[in-house]
Amino acid sequence: MENLHNKRKVYEKSQLIESEIKQNPIEQFRDWFLDASNTPGVSEANAMAVSTLEEDGCPRTRMVLLKEYTYEGFIFYTNYNSRKGKSIESNHKACLHFFWPNLERQIIIKANLEKIAENLSDGYFHSRPKGSQLGAVVSPQSQEIPDREFLEERLKALEKEYENSEVPRPANWGGYIAKPYEIEFWQGRPNRLHDRIIYQLEDLDWKISRLAP
């Protein structure tokens, strides 16, 4: 057992005030994302946690990589038959979370998820390294498998099968776009009086408010 009561950090690297923020949260996200991408020590600025609701009513969270963002939303790719895919199919809401400790910042995004167009999934799939393409075909994601060798043997067989040809995108693999309706930006501040600015979509406009830490 370990007592963690005295593990504390002073947050003092930046601030988040209304006079300096963007009126559109995607533009604010872009600024923070670029900061994270250019900060030494942040190895994957696009790593985000995606939480979905499972059949037993318990949320499940996993890390995925953001692959694109637009004014419409945030795009990532996965196996549609995976646990997250099945959760999204039954409940189209999800929560995305970015945490950049080097900047003492986090972003929490509540969103509705939709599959993107198949041609967009095709385009991204064929832009990936061939090994990653084969990995998507090989893995029956989230299903029980007998052992590691099961995957490695399937990979060897597919490497031979597609040695001189293009790997087709599996029909059960593709992208989702998370269309946000609430985005909260959190900036660590001294004395635990952190800055929390929240954007909430009302009709077609974003309402901006400050939350107590």
Automatic annotation (TrEMBL):
Pyridoxine 5'-phosphate oxidase dimerisation C-terminal domain boundaries: 173-213
Record flagged with keyword Nucleus: no
UniProt keyword Ribonucleoprotein, yes or no: no
Pathway: Cofactor metabolism; pyridoxal 5'-phosphate salvage; pyridoxal 5'-phosphate from pyridoxamine 5'-phosphate: step 1/1; Cofactor metabolism; pyridoxal 5'-phosphate salvage; pyridoxal 5'-phosphate from pyridoxine 5'-phosphate: step 1/1
UniProt cofactor(s): FMN
Gene3D superfamilies for the chain: Electron Transport, Fmn-binding Protein, Chain A (2.30.110.10)
EC code: 1.4.3.5
Domain Pyridoxamine 5'-phosphate oxidase N-terminal residue range list: 42-155
Cofactor notes: Binds 1 FMN per subunit.
Binding, FMN: 62-67, 77-78, 83-84, 106, 141-142, 186, 196
GO biological process assignments: pyridoxine biosynthetic process
Record Pfam families: PNP_phzG_C (PF10590), PNPOx_N (PF01243)
Annotated catalysed reactions: pyridoxine 5'-phosphate + O2 = pyridoxal 5'-phosphate + H2O2; pyridoxamine 5'-phosphate + O2 + H2O = pyridoxal 5'-phosphate + H2O2 + NH4(+)
Organism superkingdom: Bacteria
Ranges that cross the membrane: none
Enzyme class, spelled out: oxidoreductase
Amino-acid positions noted as binding substrate in the UniProt annotation, renumbered to this chain: 8-11, 67, 124, 128, 132, 192-194
Keywords: Flavoprotein, FMN, Oxidoreductase, Pyridoxine biosynthesis
GO molecular function, one term: pyridoxamine phosphate oxidase activity
Recorded family membership: Belongs to the pyridoxamine 5'-phosphate oxidase family.
Record function comment: Catalyzes the oxidation of either pyridoxine 5'-phosphate (PNP) or pyridoxamine 5'-phosphate (PMP) into pyridoxal 5'-phosphate (PLP).
Subunit structure: Homodimer.
Protein name as catalogued: Pyridoxine/pyridoxamine 5'-phosphate oxidase
Organism: Chryseobacterium oranimense
Gene name tied to this protein: pdxH
